[in-house]
Design goal:
HD_phosphohydro; about 0% strand; about 75% helix; 3 helices; about 60 residues; elongated; mainly alpha
Length: about 60
């Protein structure tokens, strides 16, 4: 099965929609709702999302 990016990536709407979703995650108080995931992954997830947003905005 092809990836979503491979199938729709050439559409400018794809990147705008992806950026909107990623910004939503960063606006949330917590991405991960359980303490176990929050403690282990929240900080890195936020860094990864911010880096992806920078990539999208640079295009």
């Amino acid at each position: 099965m092809p990836s979503t990016k491979a199938e729709y990536g050439s559409s400018p709407q794809f990147d705008r929609g992806r950026a909107r979703v990623l910004k939503h995650f960063l606006e949330m108080d917590r991405i991960y709702k359980t303490a176990w995931f929050f403690d282990r992954y929240e900080e890195q997830a936020r860094k990864n999302i911010a880096a992806e947003l920078q990539t999208l905005e640079a295009q």
